[in-house]
Sequence to fold (382 residues):
Amino acid sequence: MPGITGTEVLSYKPQGIPAPLVGSVRVTVPPEKKIIDAVVERACDVPNRKRTELVITITDGNATLHRVDSGCPSNTIDLAAVFEDMREANPTGYVWLGESHTSDDILVSDYETAPYDDDPDYETATSWMTTVAAVYRNAGATSIRMDVRDVVISSAPATEHLATIEALTSLSADYQLEQLWLTPDSLVVKSPSESAAAVLTTAVDEERAFEDHDTEVTALPLWSFGGTVTAPMIRVADAAAELGATEMSVDRRSNLRVLAPSVEAVSAWSERLAAANSEGVRVELTTVDGYRSFEVLINDPALVITAEQNPYPMWVDWYQRIAEVSPKSREIRGTIRFSTDQIVVFRPDETEVASITAVVEQIAEEDGHITYQVGGPLETRY
Fold:
């Protein structure tokens, strides 16, 4: 086809399972709408294309935009316009637009190794905002979900988030935004220091584009691993920080995970966090007690702790009863995991299985509905 500057073809068959051959075709083109539309049209004419991924790479040698699709590409976003807008704001911009595996959204990500991995100028949300705005400005009503380095934006038609994103882009020119999480009704911005957060809070409060959002600016040591941080989470995390918590994170299920310094602290902290949790945040308290870990099943509904419903003191009591019959030292650290209806003791020492089982049986009898498992390798908590 005229205008294409490069092609790359990869085919493979997944190992270990009976599966058909699948393939990937990468086509490199200049930022010209006519050429991009022609590539899409040609790809859609190919029969039996469902097992072939098409990657359209638009580049001028500096800025790069990738569009990934399976089957016939959805060309609802003007890729040439996105590229030009992105390049104008950021001459070395780099982004992937792909299909979400769980919805009809366009997923915006920094998939694969971007050329700025070791560049300190690309370590914050501020460095991403011009690229983010370029995508949303040209996406129309397309539903987009964004998960790039330090920027997480929940699924919504691009038009619903555009005014907020434009305002954030303007703010990022004057203030350092380390991370940000945006949903239709919540906005959390992470600032590099308490003093910077205080100044940024004033600017956020004065921005009319954020009036419909529950907003929080924070400098807490809080990181996200695939989950969206919300303003109510920050208020619970603030309470945890006041207690002395230094390690907090949000997982892909949007649980607020807080590492406590001891098992005893788990019980005391849970009461303080439950009092601060008026908006239904799932709080996962955990700790490492020498050679054992205290854990909870992270999809347990009981993690939404309140002053009226807080199972942590009970779980800590059970943990301590089990720990009393465990050896003082061991080569492999064990884990005791609790949930609403189960206790699981992973990797117990062979010499302690009988004594632990007796204690857990007694707990189950007292509780009336708890099941239990003693032994076995460490399993996923999902």
Summary: The radius of gyration is 25 Å. The longest strand covers residues 22-29. Residues 67 and 227 are 24 Å apart (CA to CA).
